[in-house]
Amino acid sequence: MVDISRPARERLLQLMRIFEKHIRAGSGGMITSAQVEHLTGWSRDTIRKDISFLGKALGGNDGATVGGNAGYEPEMLVPLIRKALDLNRRRKFCIVGLGRLGSAYLGFTPPELAEFELAAGFDINVNRVEILASSVPLYPAYKMAEVIGRFEIEIALLCIPAGAAQNIAEKCVAAGVRGILNFAPVVLRLPQEVMVRNVFVVDELRNLSVNMGNLSQGLAKG
Hints:
This protein is of the alpha/beta class. It is built from nine helices and six strands, in the order ααααβαβαβαβαββα. It has helices at 6-24, 33-40, 44-52, 74-84, 100-106, 126-131, 144-151, 162-175, 201-221; strands spanning 91-96, 116-123, 138-140, 155-158, 179-182, 195-198.
């Protein structure tokens, strides 16, 4: 993967989503710099700098051929972003915990998720596994090691209570999982080679509230 900073990677992922939406809408042609700036709130200089990273995926090109002041060609840029961020390989993931949150993700199949395959769901409650209607194979939690290894699942969505999260996460890693999207409100202690993304709704709400307050103060001073 091309060496790109984390903030730039996250912006490129958002750009790819915007470009993919543009393509699916059948809009055709270029999407202008002004449109991208309006949709993201980022300056044109920031957008151009991020796009320039894609040149490295072309073997040293400076990025000038993939966009500029006039705008960007989504049909060209989407595969370049995928290559630069190593998104061309298909990865399998599973959901651990099939309560309200986990079961909701069983039917989560947006077109943007094409590079991922939901391969299995797990829950400690055997009755829940048997009752839930799903096109995805569901298993009791005690079969995680066997199923994760057999299907070569690399990513787990952890949708379980905080008290069980560390133990279950360790079992996922032992079975072969190398990336965890953690919805449990607890910090996981796992080996450095395991990538963890925490999605704590309370923290996000508080962060949003703080930023709203800072924005209000800034506007009042202005």
